[in-house]
Amino acid sequence: xxxxxxxxxxxxxxxxxxxxxxxxxxxxxxxxxxxxxxxxxxxxxxxxxxxxxxxxxxxxxxxxxxxxxxxxxxxxxxxxxxxxxxxxxxxxxxxxxxxxxxxxxxxxxx
Amino acid sequence: xxxxxxxxxxxxxxxxxxxxxxxxxxxxxxxxxxxxxxxxxxxxxxxxxxxxxxxxxxxxxxxxxxxxxxxxxxxxxxxxxxxxxxxxxxxxxxxxxxxxxxxxxxxxxxxxxx
Lengths: 110, 114
Hints:
The complex is a heterodimer. Chain A is built from no helices and eleven strands. Chain A has strands spanning 5-7, 10-14, 19-24, 31-37, 44-49, 55-58, 61-65, 71-76, 85-93, 97-100, 104-109. The interface between A and B is medium-sized, with 26 and 27 residues.
């Protein structure tokens, strides 16, 4: 079993603040993906990181893949209420399968 | 949009009855997956398929079977539904991209077993 631990499980911040959430594992993954999920919907892919040390930016979201390809972080700058959601990280392994963390529930308060 | 349609979207069934969930894709992808999502457990892989009639078990396959008789359809069957199978079920496909394979999800099927 490929375990991915996400922290913190729940985070509530004021609009305009910055936040960082983490995804850690003892396993090495060929790539790692971040998804955002809103209530009643399926997860939607935000980004895929492949190379150790890679940093990708998606508007106010910055994703980093650890050098050893075991961990990742997501940083949101100047959070907006539209950033509210469940953020899931997933590691690709084996026969094209994904192992998911339990998610970071982010609530941005206006 | 990865062209994934799940049906039914919502279903209430009684314990002991068989239930089949259908996943239909329009883009001819080889890999298809069934996940379930539960509070405290996150998304867990039930079964997956890597081609017509080629399937394999995931981490929570007990009580579930799958079939894939054609590329576009992947069926998940609960032979005799139990209350522990009340969950949200997501179908997914894997699409080859510039940075490797990326998995895209359907909108989910909410199943309640009473």
